[in-house]
Amino acid sequence: MPKPVKYNILRASMAVSAATILLRILGLIREIVLAAAYGAGTVSDAYIIATTVPSVILLVIGNAVTATYIPQCASHNGDKNQFTSSLLTMLFIVGFIFAFIFTLFPQALVYIFASKLAPDAFDLASKLLQVMVWSAIPMLLIGIFRAYLQIKKIFFVAIASDALINFCAVISIILGKFTESLILLGIGVMIGNIASMAVLVVFCKKKGLRYYPRIDFRDEHIRNMLKLMLPITLAAAVLEINQIIDKNLAASLVSGTVATLSYSSKLNNVVTELVGSAVTIALFPRMSELAAEDNISALKKHLIRWVITLTPMLLPLTVGMVLIAKPIVQILLERGAFEPEDTQRTAECLQMYALSILATNFSPLFIRGFHAMKQAKIPAILSAISVAGGIALKLSLIGTFQHRGLALGTSVTSMLYTILLVIMFRKTVGALGLREQVPELAKITFASATMGVFVWFAIRNTPIMNGAYMQCLFWTVIIVGIAVILYGGLLVLLKVKVITGVVVELKKKMSR
Fold first, then answer.
1. Is the torsion defined by CA of 15, 20, 21, 23 positive or negative?
2. pLDDT tens string 466-487
3. What pTM, to 2 d.p., does this model score?
4. Cβ-based neighbours of 237, under 8 Å, separated by 6 or more
5. DSSP sequence for 24-42
């Protein structure tokens, strides 16, 4: 007897979460090592710009390919190996041309992303980029290999392979610090991308993928992909332009602001990728199947069910991250070259980014819903509207609030984008049934607010920030632990459906 779809998605989400935990732990270690070795200054600014440049540009193409590849495969009745081979060949050529051009002219990319970067940081970023830019080829191909494994329900390996990138980056940062050879930082990133791709290739071959050097533009599915990719690429390009503007604005502030924003953003993204991204990745293949079957009603129910399921986890996380941002930054980053002043600035940015945790987790679900229905134009248009508003907001905030203004502008942009996505998704598929969920959402909000009051009071009446590292760690663990128990108890007392459902399932398993 086949297992229920909900169980399969939950199991897939758990696999993605496990892989993401591994990935995020190594990513966090990379940020900790970078902060300890170089703090928030010239080298860290240059390194972050150099690693951001190729990923920002290439992910525009890579994400568009991945988003269209899965739905096309779901409806493809021919030889999927030949279809996939054509895509791999095309991406290899694009990656090679990109790498060749910007090995010769790396300064052009750095100028686009951070024209106001300090001269020393600008020169170092250009040198690192000459090496890192050759990651273009594996970065583009990884998207297809990862999507292929997701179709085959091999979620853990598809995500966990990126851990090799972080592992190699950590080793290269350490070696670069001890040998004083900063070029090793770029070599580590390049080797990590190649290693990640190699692992995916091995597993794809085991699952039946065979590569034939070919490009067939006569393939109907290739032509459909190219048509669908245009609006997705434009939407992604708009978001990446937003990042370019952010980097330039950050570079115009005091030295180290680029690193400060990067550290805080990545700490915030740990939450986003552990929870929301896991569900989004696991859910997308199923949504594509339902869309191919023209079962829009089931697709809508699937998506909204997971929105409601995620809310009890994400809302208290938002409250908690805003309130304990400074202890988190101090525990994770404040050592070596990372000074207390860096902790303060990074914590202020983290508080601003945390405001958008709900939005950054929900928007990918609705975007993938549109992509599954092959209606990519709507997210593209909404993205352009949101980013335009966000840029205007950041320009108005940066003068008064400096780095905090940039982070706050990013959060407001994300919230605006998500609201517009929900409105348009409802217009496309009909009523979402959100009104019926208002009582449940009110209970979750009450529980989160009560927990927040406790955390706020505890922080102000304990010596959490008045001592050394171990004292901060001790009180943070105590406060968070009590807050979790309090919040969980309130959800049970208030009989929140998501929690009562989990309790019933646990009782059934324990009685077996």
1. positive
2. 667 778 888 888 888 999 999 9
3. 0.66
4. 60
5. HHHHHHHHHHHHHHH-SSH
Nearest to 47 by CA among 190, 246, 259, 196: 259
Using CA atoms, how far apart are residues 234 and 79, in angstroms rounded to an integer?
29
Q: What is the DSSP letter of 253?
A: S
Task: Please choose, from the candidates 263, 305, 298, 241, the residue with its C-alpha nearest in 3D space to the C-alpha of residue 436.
Answer: 305
The answer for residues whose C-beta is within 8 angstroms of residue 117's C-beta and 6 or more apart is 45, 46, 49, 110, 125, 251, 258
**Cα dihedral 386, 387, 392, 393 sign:** positive
What DSSP line would sit under 372-440, residue for residue?
Answer: HTT-THHHHHHHHHHHHHHHHHHHHHHHHHTHHHHHHHHHHHHHHHHHHHHHHHHHHH-----GGGHHH
Question: CA of 426: how far to CAs of 98, 358, 419, 430, 510, in Å?
Answer: 40, 18, 11, 5, 40
Phi then psi for residue 295, to 5 deg, are: -100, 70
The more confident residue out of 339 and 454 is: 454
Asked if residues 362 and 276 have their Cβ atoms less than 8 Å apart, the reply is yes
Selection from 49, 51, 45, 43 nearest residue 181 by Cα? 43
| Whether the predicted pLDDT of 284 surpasses 70 | no
Give me the residue spans of the domains in the chain: 5-433, 436-506
